[in-house]
Write a structure and sequence with these properties.
Elements lengths: L1 H42 L12 H36 L3 E6 L4 E4 L1 H7 L3 H4 L4 H4 L3 H9 L6 E5 L2 E10 L3 E8 L1 H37 L5 H32 L8 E3 L1 H16 L4 E7 L3 E3 L1 H17 L6 E9 L2 E8 L6 H4 L11 H7 L5 H11 L3 E7 L3 E7 L11
Parallel strand pairs: 7-9
Antiparallel strand pairs: 1-2, 1-5, 3-4, 4-5, 6-8, 9-10, 10-12, 11-12
């Protein structure tokens, strides 16, 4: 009896141990299975989904999911910030190049591509010093003289280049195009020099005659009258030059808007024709054809532009020449043109005609008493009216100057 009881006890213990062992194996299998799924998820979190979990794994998986969501949110915010940063850099007027610490190109904006001759698509990952082959640029980069910017001319453009350390392993290269600034500065210096020269010549003549009058009080009357006549001419020349300079300054001012008014073109061109005939003194055959609509704009500004073109044609057309003035309606809008059979202009000089004080023939310009500002005034008047100046000329055969106005300046009610 006692032996039977002992046997049942041993059997119960063995069976319990086996069951406990089996449960342990099941638990180990479950843990290993969760660990296996966790390993797969860690390798490819975007493609693999975690199980819901059981026991402590539920909390672990929940925390991992939260971390994953936070990471995705941070990545999305970073991507959005990076996109905005690149978009902002792309809109800058200056070039921006981002490089790593060994000067490999990571990113650049379109302005830098144009200024430096780079291509983000094909040059990304290449060393910048191999892409910009300039000894001055390479010395600036290698010698690390970053305290002062580098002035460099690339593809005919003058650039100011500055290198800025960015983070620990990146650098930013910034380029600023100074070409237009230098051109405007040169124009300013030329304007001052030319204006001084143009004013000095008549002043020299006037002062010379005044010195003669002061030193020779008994000068004969005919010489004195000749001197006075020449001084009056030079005084008028200075007055015309100053008036043209003031007109040009006013036209360039943003505080002087175009006076939008109804312009009676027929009446205006009749006045321009009368002025032209007076200037010509019957030395030329001048004709006018007016077959176009009235427009909206500034009457006095347009008078100045038209008169300048007509007076230039008279000055540069020999006696007996013909000058044709016309106003027509075209497919692009109203057009004013002045055609002459005068001395003409070389093709290489056409592009610079509207520059201040630019003269094709300086000696000829002095003979015609021009100020050198007429076509510059025309250019600014046309800019204020959204019009264009078209020039056709052949040396020795004459010129054709055409002002093309936009159709919007000739509304139906003004036609």
């Amino acid at each position: 009896m006692a032996a039977g009881i002992a046997g049942w006890a041993v059997w119960d213990f063995t069976r319990g141990l086996a069951i406990a062992f089996l449960i342990l194996l099941i638990l180990i299998f479950v843990q290993l299975r969760y660990m296996y799924h966790l390993s797969l998820w860690l390798d490819k979190p975007e493609e693999t989904k975690l199980k819901d979990g059981w026991g402590s794994w539920t909390d672990i998986f929940a925390k991992l999911y939260r971390l994953r969501r936070d990471d995705q949110k941070s990545r999305a915010e970073l991507a959005e910030w990076l996109s905005r940063f690149r978009e902002a850099m792309s809109q800058l007027p200056d070039g921006v190049v981002i490089m790593d610490d060994v000067l490999f190109l990571e990113w650049c904006n379109p302005v830098a591509e144009r200024q430096l001759g780079l291509s983000l698509k094909s040059d990304k990952g290449m060393r910048v010093t191999n892409l910009i082959r300039s000894p001055e640029f390479i010395d600036y980069i290698i010698l690390a003289h970053y305290e002062e910017p580098l002035s460099l001319t690339i593809n005919g453009r003058k650039l100011i280049i500055r290198l800025i350390p960015f983070e620990n392993r990146r650098q930013i290269l910034v380029t600023h195009d100074m070409t237009e600034f230098d051109r405007l500065d040169q124009m300013r210096r030329d304007f001052i020099a030319n204006a001084s020269h143009e004013l000095r010549t008549p002043l020299t003549v006037i002062n010379g005659f005044l010195e003669i009058a002061n030193s020779e009080p008994n000068l004969d009357e005919s010489s004195r009258q000749q001197h006075i006549k020449l001084m009056v001419e030079q005084g008028k020349r200075m007055q015309n030059l100053i008036e043209d300079m003031l007109v040009l300054t006013r036209l360039e001012s943003i505080d002087y808007p175009v006076r939008d008014e109804f312009v009676d073109i027929h009446h205006l061109l009749d006045e321009v024709l009368i002025e032209a005939q007076a200037l010509s003194s019957n030395r030329h055959k001048i004709s006018l054809v007016c077959d176009g609509p009235d427009i909206l704009g500034g009457t006095e500004e347009l008078r100045s532009a038209f008169s300048n073109l007509v007076s230039n044609a008279i000055r540069y057309t020999p006696d007996g020449g013909e000058i044709e003035i016309s106003w027509n309606k075209t497919n692009l809008g109203p057009a004013f043109s002045v055609k002459d059979n005068g001395i003409g202009i070389k093709q290489e000089n056409l592009a610079r005609l509207t520059e201040r004080f630019y003269r094709v023939d300086k000696g000829r310009s002095r003979e015609t008493q021009g100020t050198g500002l007429g076509l510059a005034i025309v250019k600014h008047v046309l800019m204020r009216h959204n019009a264009r100046l078209l020039i056709e000329s052949e040396l020795g055969k004459g010129s054709l100057f055409t002002i093309q106005f936009p159709e919007s300046l000739a509304p139906a009610k003004a036609a």
